[in-house]
Amino acid sequence: MADIPPIAWIGIGLIVAVVAMLVPALTIFIAVGILFIVVGVAKMVRSSAATKETTNTHSYHTASPRNEASPNTRVCFVCGAKNSALANFCGHCGHRLS
Q: Is 1 part of any domain?
């Protein structure tokens, strides 16, 4: 199931709130519009923080891991972390090791 982008939540919230303000019989929907806007902003902040965290966690791998691997380790080609030779998934990023 696809995730709804934050800008869609904010846009729908603005439309609902503005229409509810213009039509007196729909004043209850002002709160619904504001709720949509709040959810959209929260999703935007959360995705921004997750992107920043992902960028920072992988930035310290500078050496070429392929030259450093020994027969007892498997190197993740996504993040460059060394893992046990028996590992199926990277212990650092969780990517499947091939």
A: no
The answer to whether the CB of 6 falls within 8 A of the CB of 47 is yes
Beta-carbon contacts of residue 95 (< 8 Å; ≥ 6 apart): 76, 77, 78, 79, 89
pTM over 0.85: no
Q: How many angstroms separate the CA atoms of 97 and 87, rounded? A: 7
Domain count, the chain: 2
The answer to whether residues 37 and 49 belong to one domain is yes
* pLDDT tens-digit profile, the chain (98 residues): 468 888 998 999 999 999 999 998 888 899 999 999 999 999 999 888 777 665 555 544 444 444 455 678 888 888 888 888 888 888 889 888 87
DSSP at 97:
P
